[in-house]
User: Which sequence fits this backbone?
C-alpha cells in the first residue's frame, strides 16, 4: 500500500528530526575514548553477534 | 568536619542516589515491559489492521517528543510512560500475529523474546559491574541511528530484502551499544531521571526484539 509507505516515511523523518538535537549534542560533546575503552565495548557486542548467529542456527 | 569527611559524605550520597536511580529504573522498566506485553496480547486477540502499528508509533513519538520531557520530573511522567509503552505494545500486535501464523511462528517469537532478555540482562550486568563510562560511544551510536533511519527510508521504496536484513542487524548492534551507553550514563551520573532512563532502555529492548524477530524469521528455519 503506497499510503502506508508514505506514512512510514513521514514517521521515519519525524524520528530523525526528534533525535537530531541529541545526535548533534553527542557528536560534538562525546568524551574521547581512553585506552581499552573500545575493546571493553566491542567485547560484549561481539558476544551479542555470536549469540544472534547461534539463535539463527537454532530456529 | 574536615575536607576528607565532606568528600566521603558526598561520595556516599552520590552512591545512594545512584543506587536509588538504578532501583527505580529497573522497577519501572519491569512494570512497563509487563504492561507492554499485556497490551501486545490484547492486540493479538483483537487482531487490528497493520495500520494500528503505524498509528501507535506516531502517538508514542508525539508523546515522547512533546509530553514526556515536560512531565518527566513529576509523578504524571509515570502515567505517560505507561501510556507510551502500552501504545507501543499494542502496536506490536499485528507483527506478532503475522509471525504466529507462520509454521514455526510461536517458536520464533519465543526465541526472539528469550534472546532479547538474555542480551539485555547480559549487557546491563556487564555495564553495571564494570562501572566503565561508555559515554565515549554517544556520537558513534547517534550517528549510527541517523544512518540506519536514512537507510530505512530508502528501504521503504527499494525492493531490497538484503537491505532490510542489514538494517535489522545494524539495529541490534546499535541498540546493544545503546544499552551499554544508557546503563553507564545511569551509573556514572550522566542521567539522573529514572523516567527518561526507563524509556530509553525500553525502546532499545523493543527495537532489539523486533529486529531479532525479523532476522530469525528471514534467516532461521527451512521454510
Assistant:
Amino acid at each position: 500500500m503506497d499510503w502506508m509507505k508514505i506514512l512510514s516515511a513521514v514517521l521515519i523523518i519525524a524520528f530523525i528530526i526528534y533525535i537530531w538535537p541529541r545526535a548533534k549534542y553527542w557528536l560534538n560533546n562525546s568524551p574521547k575514548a581512553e585506552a581499552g575503552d573500545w575493546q571493553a565495548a566491542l567485547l560484549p557486542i561481539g558476544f551479542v553477534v555470536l549469540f544472534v548467529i547461534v539463535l539463527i542456527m537454532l530456529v | 568536619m574536615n575536607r576528607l569527611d565532606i568528600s566521603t559524605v558526598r561520595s556516599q550520597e552520590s552512591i545512594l542516589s545512584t543506587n536509588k536511580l538504578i532501583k527505580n529504573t529497573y522497577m519501572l522498566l519491569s512494570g512497563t515491559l509487563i504492561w507492554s506485553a499485556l497490551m501486545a496480547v490484547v492486540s493479538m486477540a483483537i487482531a487490528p489492521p497493520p495500520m494500528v502499528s503505524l498509528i501507535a508509533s506516531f502517538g508514542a513519538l508525539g508523546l515522547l517528543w512533546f509530553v514526556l520531557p515536560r512531565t518527566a520530573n513529576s509523578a504524571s511522567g509515570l502515567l505517560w510512560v505507561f501510556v507510551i509503552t502500552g501504545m507501543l505494545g499494542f502496536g506490536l500486535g499485528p507483527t506478532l500475529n503475522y509471525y504466529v501464523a507462520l509454521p514455526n511462528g510461536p517458536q520464533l517469537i519465543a526465541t526472539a523474546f528469550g534472546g532479547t532478555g538474555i542480551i539485555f540482562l547480559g549487557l546491563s550486568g556487564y555495564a553495571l559491574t564494570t562501572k566503565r563510562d561508555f559515554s565515549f560511544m554517544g556520537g558513534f551510536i547517534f550517528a549510527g541511528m541517523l544512518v540506519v533511519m536514512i537507510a530505512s527510508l530508502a528501504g521503504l521504496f527499494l525492493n531490497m530484502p538484503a537491505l532490510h536484513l542489514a538494517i535489522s542487524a545494524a539495529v541490534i548492534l546499535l541498540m546493544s551499544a545503546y544499552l551499554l551507553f544508557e546503563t553507564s550514563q545511569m551509573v556514572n551520573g550522566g542521567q539522573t531521571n529514572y523516567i527518561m532512563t526507563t524509556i530509553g532502555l525500553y525502546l532499545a529492548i523493543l527495537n532489539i526484539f523486533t529486529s531479532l524477530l525479523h532476522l530469525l524469521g528471514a534467516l532461521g528455519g527451512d521454510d
Remarks:
- The mean pLDDT of chain B is 92.
- The two ends of chain B are 72 Å apart (CA to CA).
- The longest helix of chain B spans residues 3-46.
- Helices of chain B lie at 3-46, 51-71, 76-91, 93-100, 105-130, 138-157, 161-187, 194-219.
